[in-house]
Write a structure and sequence with these properties.
Strands 7-6-5-8-9 form a five-stranded mixed β-sheet, sandwiched between helices. The two termini are 45 Å apart. The chain is built from nine helices and nine strands. The protein is elongated. It is an alpha+beta fold. It has two domains: 130 residues, no CATH class; 137 residues, 2-Layer Sandwich (Nucleotidyltransferase, domain 5), CATH 3.30.420.10. The longest helix has 18 residues.
Length: 323
């Protein structure tokens, strides 16, 4: 058995690295400030211009060096109004980014000492960072496939039928070669209109699309103005690879999602399914980053933060027990 470290040295980020970089809340706050306001330079609403801001001792805020107006790096982020330690937030993000199959809120509760309600809320907030609605697949060849998630139906071997309300359809598209990124969406159905609409939205014109024999894919070659080339593999005849015609890449992603959800979370409701798909897609799309996926997740906090505002001293207090 090969016992060597499989992640290249430059892509490793261990728990020791985390503890060294983020030993306490102050270090986390300073990192967040640098992500949002590099060098402490931020727009002051009172001065109406960019000003240098300095940390106020004992408080998680920074003050304008000219007029004293205060801003908080946590304002407009998932950390706002939370009484949970900022370092625990960072630690939860580290664990979430460092595992291939996910980690449960119950495990975070055990490791951090917060209540389950707090751990669950933290995970929901962190997952809100993982959606990438504007992502455009760039590969000239893609695989497209559908799967179903949900309870097991009786009869017909458990196979879902059109109009099935028990299982939730999921449609995925993955690039071949290049970055090899994936998009996975929970959909209301797998009709031709739904599948072709996703193809038009996410697949570049003149791409080669590989699918199975589902009749709903029939119109891919005729999507107006896209010029797709369409190849199919006939799974019903137990043919899974024919030259370069297959859907094994997207099938591998489905296996990762289903085994991960089944092994870690056990079950997921239709209401939250898309957020879990976003989580698995986010990690899959950055699988070449090793443990540095954590740094990508930290960047998302600043990227999705609302524009900062001056601290309102009459603002409501932090929530004592987030839920």
């Amino acid at each position: 058995m090969d016992r060597r470290q499989t992640i290249p040295k430059e892509l490793r980020y261990t728990i020791n690295d985390f503890n060294t970089q983020f030993p306490d809340d102050d270090a986390c706050l300073e990192h967040l400030k640098e992500q949002r306001f590099p060098g402490g330079i931020a727009y002051c609403e009172k001065c109406k211009k960019e000003r240098k801001h300095y940390r106020i001792t004992g408080r998680p805020v920074y003050s304008c060096d000219h007029c004293g107006t205060q801003i908080s790096p946590m304002a407009g982020t998932i950390f706002e109004h939370s009484s949970t330690s900022l370092r625990l937030w960072y630690y939860a993000m580290y664990l979430m980014a460092s595992t291939r199959c996910g980690i449960s809120a119950k495990q975070i509760q055990r490791e951090t000492g917060v209540t389950y309600k707090t751990a669950w809320r933290m995970f929901r907030q962190i997952r809100s960072l993982l959606s990438e609605p504007d992502m455009q697949l760039e590969g000239s060849a893609v695989e497209m496939d559908e799967t179903y998630y949900g309870g097991v139906r009786k009869g017909r071997g458990g196979r879902p039928m059109r109009g099935d309300k028990k299982k939730t359809p999921i449609v995925g598209i993955v690039e071949r070669g290049g970055k090899g990124r994936v998009i996975a969406k929970a959909t209301p159905d797998v009709s031709g209109a739904t599948l072709l609409g996703m193809a038009r939205e996410y697949i570049l014109p003149k791409s080669t699309v590989f699918t199975d024999e589902l009749p709903a894919y029939d119109g891919i070659k005729h999507v107006k103005g896209m010029g797709y080339r369409h190849h199919r593999i006939k799974h019903s005849a137990k043919v899974y690879v024919r030259g370069n015609v297959h859907t094994n890449t997207i099938e591998g992603f489905w296996s990762l999602v289903k085994r991960g959800i089944g092994g870690v979370y056990h079950q997921v409701s239709q209401k939250y399914l898309q957020s879990y798909l976003n989580e698995y897609s986010f990690r899959y799309n950055r699988r070449d980053q090793g443990n540095l996926i954590f740094t990508s997740l930290l960047k998302r906090v600043a990227e999705l933060a609302a524009p900062h505002v001056a601290i309102d001293h009459g603002m409501k207090p932090a929530i004592a027990e987030p839920f």
